[in-house]
Protein: GcuG3
Organism: Pseudomonas aeruginosa
Amino acid sequence: MEQINNIELVDPSIYPTDEILKRILGKSFSVYLKLLRLYENYSLITEWKYYKDGKAWLCKVIKGKKTIVWMSAWKNYIKATIYLPEKHINGVLVLDIHEITKKAFIETNNIGRSRPCMFELKEENILEDFIKVMQFKMTLK
């Protein structure tokens, strides 16, 4: 996935409040709110934290001690990334998700021994694939 936008929330002294996120995300703020409700329905916890190595605020979405999703704020969208171990790559490819999602996942390079499945959540129609991949990740041990 080619990056043509810059990550927002790079000032460590400015916590990403809803007001700040609304300004950055614009119309896609409603998608962010849907994500928060979705996470709540799955008993997932969200934690915004400034990461010095990435020089930006990221939101870690966890279930127990397991990280399920990483989120970052970009101009007019939220990026949600689900890292999947190499041994489970084929599991994603057999999910009932759009071919374009599978193609983007296949073409993404591994980071260590995991492959990121990235979603630029600008509109609600993308949530369907995201939810299926997230549910799959939650079943992994």
